[in-house]
Amino acid sequence: MRLLEGIAFMRSHRDSSIIAVALNNYTILVIDLDTKGIIRKFEGHSAKLNDLTFSPDSRWIISASMDATIKVWDLPSSYMIDQFRVEKPCVSITMSPTGDFLATAHVGYLGIYLWANRTLFNRVPLHSTNPRFGAPLVEDPSNLGIETTKVDKAVNAHDLISNQEENLEQIDFVYLTPQQLSKNTISVSNLPALKWQNLFDLDIIKRHNRPKCPPNVIKLAPFFIPTLSGLEMEYDVSTDKRSVGRRS
């Protein structure tokens, strides 16, 4: 197969026969290796593509570019369903095997950032979005309550401490978790999502697993067969069948 533009890099999905090709003109091509044809073409990035990855079910392609945007492309519908912009461009991206988290690495940052998949917690409408529209800015995830920036360093230390004390007085840290938030919710433990996601379709599963006909009851066999008295063991087959299994 000959392409009109140069290839920057390629990514493949292990469980399917498709590959994603990033071109030098910021376009993403999805190629089927069995038919050797282009099945999808995604355009929307305005700078060099740094990395892209498949979702575990090969339904999404998530791409990162030097324009500091991360876009989610839906393969069945061939639409872009989500995008967001970060402070620093993402240079490497991958998704967890269960699809729960997205891991990214950014320019000038030594850490790895994790993003939660919102579709696992609530119903998210996956409508098509124009890739040319501006993406909303999302702050990088952090495990710190207060992040130190260059502006914060210029603030007087005494004023910063006093402001923190005032904020601590206004916040009530005592919170008692109720046993059940609502009657319409399900309380779960630390089990993975695959263990409890099928609870929403429990009625459908029970209806599909319902037997078509009632089970057949196995007839009970007699617990002993009468024998004839003698030196050799012989069974008494002349006994009435109705008396078989009764103790005298």
UniProtKB/TrEMBL annotation:
It comes from Glossina fuscipes. This is WD repeat-containing protein 36-like. WD repeats lie at residues 42-83. PANTHER family: WD REPEAT-CONTAINING PROTEIN 36. PROSITE patterns: WD_REPEATS_1 (PS00678), WD_REPEATS_2 (PS50082), WD_REPEATS_REGION (PS50294). The keyword Oxidoreductase does not apply. Keywords: Repeat, WD repeat. InterPro entries: WD40/YVTN_repeat-like_dom_sf, WD40_repeat_CS, WD40_repeat_dom_sf, WD40_rpt, WDR36/Utp21_C. Residues 179-238 form the WDR36/Utp21 C-terminal domain. One of its GO terms (cellular component) is Pwp2p-containing subcomplex of 90S preribosome. The lineage of its organism: Eukaryota, Metazoa, Ecdysozoa, Arthropoda, Hexapoda. Pfam families: Beta-prop_WDR36-Utp21_2nd, Utp21. SMART domains: WD40. One of its GO terms (biological process) is rRNA processing.
